[in-house]
Amino acid sequence: MEFPDLGAHCSWPACQRLDFLPLKCDACEQIFCTDHIAYAQHDCTSAYKKDVQVPVCPLCNTPVPVRRGEMPDVVVGEHIDRDCKSDPAQRKHLHQQVFEAWLQAEGDDEGDL
């Protein structure tokens, strides 16, 4: 004998199992059975909100903090451009400073004409 008013149906479209102990996803807040509660098992579109991995700079091996909603690749790139203390990053800063000085000098030369 089934009790259709007891429990809840799994939100995964291919499942829809009536579960007497349904679980609510903490990211998307939908109801799932025990087979589909994991983010990967129900293709959770809100899983990124719960992803708390900390990327590491490939040049200086320093953990780079990323706020929720930010793209880790962009934040690590900004770290390399601004804060990275590794030798390749420092050389990049030096090349950038030399290039900017050259552009400024070129601009000054054009003003003399």
Features:
Zf-an1 domain; 2 domains; mainly alpha; two-stranded antiparallel sheet; 4 strands; two-stranded antiparallel ribbon; 113 residues
Explain how this protein is built.
- The chain has 2 helices and 4 strands.
- With 113 residues, the chain is mostly helical.
- A hairpin with a 6-residue loop joins strand 3 and strand 4 (31-32).
- It has 2 domains: 1-51, Zf-an1 domain (Irregular); 53-113, no CATH class.
- The protein is 32% helix and 7% strand.
- It has helices at residues 72-82, 87-111, and strands at 8-9, 18-19, 23-24, 31-32.
- The protein has a two-stranded antiparallel ribbon. A two-stranded antiparallel sheet has the order 3-4.
- One of its GO terms (biological process) is protein targeting to ER.
- GO terms for molecular function: zinc ion binding.
- Keywords: Metal-binding, Repeat, Zinc, Zinc-finger.
- InterPro entries: AN1-like_Znf, Znf-C2H2_ZFAND2A/B, Znf_AN1.
